UniProtKB/TrEMBL annotation:
Organism of this sequence: Streptomyces pyxinicus
Family stated for the protein in its record: Belongs to the SURF1 family.
Bilayer topology term: Multi-pass membrane protein
Keyword Transcription in record: no
Keyword Transmembrane helix found: yes
Protein name according to UniProt: SURF1-like protein
Coiled coil ranges: none
Bias-annotated ranges (Acidic residues): 264-273
This protein's UniProt keywords: Cell membrane, Membrane, Transmembrane, Transmembrane helix
Region ranges (Disordered): 254-273
Compositional bias per record (Basic and acidic residues), positions renumbered to this chain: 254-263
Length: 273
C-alpha cells in the first residue's frame, strides 16, 4: 500500500512539475525578501516624516544659528523654520528652470539673494512663477519688498544632481540656473553665502505671485507597511497554492483512471428448478 501511495506522486518528477516546484521554492524567499525591503522603506519613510514634522513645528530661529558659509545642512537642520533680516538684491536674482507648482504647471522658481546686516548672503527661493511658454529669456519677476525686511522660510539643503536627479545643464540663457546650490552661487555672487537656502513662507507676496512653495508634506509610509504584509501573505500562499494544484492533479488522474477501467459484467441469476 505504501508503494502504491508513493506511485501516485510520481508525476511530480515530470519536467512540468519539477519546473513548477523549483519556481515555487524560489518565489517564497524572494517574496519574503521583498517584504523585508518594504519594511525597510516603511521605517525610512516614517523616520523622514518624523524628522520633517519635528523641524516644521520647531520654534523659528535666525538662519545664522543653523547655517554658515560652506556649511552642509544635517538631516535635523533641513526644513527648520528660520528667519532672516536684510535687503533683497534683485539686480542679481536668478530663476530656476523647469520647476512645477502644485497644479503641475511648468515654470520657474525665483531665487533672490538676501544681503544680511553683516554682509553675508542667504539665498531665498521666493516661489514659483509661470514660464508663459518662453524659457529663453529672463522672465518678468514680481518685485520683493524694498529696503530692510525680515523673511521667514524653511531651511533647505543645497541641490545636487545626485540627490535631485536634475542634470546641471550648461550654456543656459542669462540669469537662469538648473539647481540651487550655495557653493555655485557664492562663486557667481563673489560673496559669503550661507550653506543651503530658504524657501520663503512669509511674508506672503502681493497678489499671490511668486506663488509660495507648499510644505513638503509626508510620505505615505503606511502604504509600504501594507505592501510588506502583502508580500508575506503571498509567500505563505505560494506553498498552499502548490499543494492545491497537486491535490487537483491527483483527483484528475484518479478520475481518468476510473474511466479507463472496463465495466464489470453483471452476474446472471441461477435458473429456477
Amino acid at each position: 500500500m505504501y508503494r502504491r501511495g508513493v506511485h501516485r506522486y510520481r508525476f511530480l518528477l515530470s519536467r512540468q512539475w519539477v519546473i513548477l516546484t523549483i519556481v515555487t521554492i524560489a518565489l517564497i524567499p524572494t517574496m519574503i525578501k521583498l517584504g523585508f525591503w518594504q519594511h525597510h522603506r516603511y521605517q525610512e519613510r516614517t523616520a523622514r516624516n518624523n524628522l520633517v514634522s519635528a523641524a516644521l513645528h520647531a520654534k523659528p530661529v535666525p538662519v545664522e544659528k543653523l547655517a554658515s558659509p560652506g556649511h552642509q545642512l544635517s538631516r535635523t537642520e533641513k526644513y527648520r523654520t528660520v528667519t532672516a533680516t536684510g535687503t533683497f538684491d534683485t539686480a542679481r536674482q536668478v530663476v530656476v528652470r523647469r520647476r512645477t507648482n502644485a497644479d503641475g504647471e511648468v515654470g520657474f522658481h525665483v531665487l533672490t539673494p538676501l544681503v544680511l546686516t553683516d554682509g553675508k548672503v542667504v539665498l531665498v527661493n521666493r516661489g514659483w512663477i509661470p514660464a508663459d511658454g518662453v524659457q529663453t529669456t529672463f522672465p518678468k519677476v514680481p518685485a520683493p519688498p524694498a529696503g530692510r525686511t525680515t523673511v521667514t522660510g524653511r531651511l533647505m539643503a543645497d541641490e545636487t544632481t545626485s540627490a535631485s536627479g536634475i542634470k546641471n545643464v550648461k550654456g543656459l540663457p542669462d540669469r537662469q540656473i538648473m539647481l540651487i546650490n550655495s557653493t555655485e552661487e557664492a562663486r557667481r555672487l563673489d560673496a559669503r553665502v550661507l550653506g543651503g537656502y530658504m524657501e520663503q513662507t512669509a511674508p506672503a507676496a502681493k497678489g499671490g505671485s511668486p506663488e509660495q512653495i507648499s510644505d513638503p508634506g509626508s510620505e505615505d509610509a503606511p502604504l509600504n507597511y501594507a505592501y510588506m504584509l502583502q508580500w508575506w501573505l503571498f509567500a505563505a500562499a505560494v506553498p498552499v497554492g502548490w499543494w492545491f494544484l497537486v491535490r487537483r492533479e491527483l483527483r484528475d488522474r484518479a478520475e481518468a483512471a476510473a474511466e479507463r477501467q472496463p465495466e464489470q459484467p453483471e452476474e446472471s441469476e441461477p435458473a429456477a428448478v
